[in-house]
Write a structure and sequence with these properties.
Elements (H helix, E strand, L loop, with lengths): L18 E4 L3 E5 L3 E6 L7 H6 L1 E5 L3 E8 L4 E8 L5 H6 L11 E5 L3 H11 L21 E4 L3 E5 L3 E6 L6 H6 L2 E4 L3 E7 L6 E7 L17 E4 L6 H17 L14 H16 L5 H13 L2
Antiparallel strand pairs: 1-2, 2-3, 3-4, 5-6, 6-7, 8-9, 9-10, 10-11, 12-13, 13-14
Helix pairs in contact: 6-7
Pfam family, one: SHOCT
Length: 299
Amino acid sequence: MRGDGTGKHVPHTMSRMGDVLAGFHAAWEFESDSVLIRYERGIRTPKLFQSLGERRVPLAALAGVTLTPGKRGTVVLRAEPRPGADPLFEAAAGQLKDGSDPYRLVLPAERATLAEYYADELRPLLTASGPAERFLVAAPEGPRQFKAYDGKATFDGGAVHFRWSWTGASTAKWKAGDQSFAVADLAGVEWRSPEVFEGHLRLLRRDLAAATPAVPADQDPATVVFGLGYGPVHESLPFAAAVLEAVRAKGAAAVPTPAGRRDPADIAERIRHLGELHRAGLVTDEEFAAKKAELLAEL
């Protein structure tokens, strides 16, 4: 079917390539074995979408598709990626807000019938399920770089480099000196979003025991710290995804979650800072409660 923009059905089969469903900030082009998502570059388009440009998502990378009511007279068509299929989603680890979810297509409510038709056409083609054995969606292309609060991070495809800032880096990082980490020496990455709380990008080294307690981000030479104005999502997350894809390509183990309990003093400091953001009106009551519960769960 090729949509006429009115929500009416125009018969066709999904095998006919080139059908396009355009929504706010993005358009999906349906192919026989994939969906090509092209993101707009308009001033209101989320910066992460602009950074991604376009992404080809093989149908084998998807577990399902849903259509739900959205806000203010819209509907949302969302493709559900399989666990382990997309390095961007793996690095994000559930931290992306709805507005920055690259798998959501928001459309006017009057196009709900058309969107439902495409959802119905897609569902029988999504035959894969469960975790993917390898990445099926390409990571954002490199080389990549971004400015963190305490340094500059660069990735050339073979190694990650941290160059510390004299105004932001801790004494521990200055003593350790600028750092370079070969992809072959890494097991994965740990990305924390800066949108609600302070963020960081931690490189997980293969030579360190999994049970080793994590060093506070501002003291760890394998971590850069960022927040408002430094290392925003659209810069730091594609960077993390590119590194993660390179690590997996080298045959390293799946990205681990550092084991062991977090330092209670570190958790207390993070909650204190979160409270300051809440009192300043930078964090809503709901965000404060959710993040505080998440931090307490790490004790």
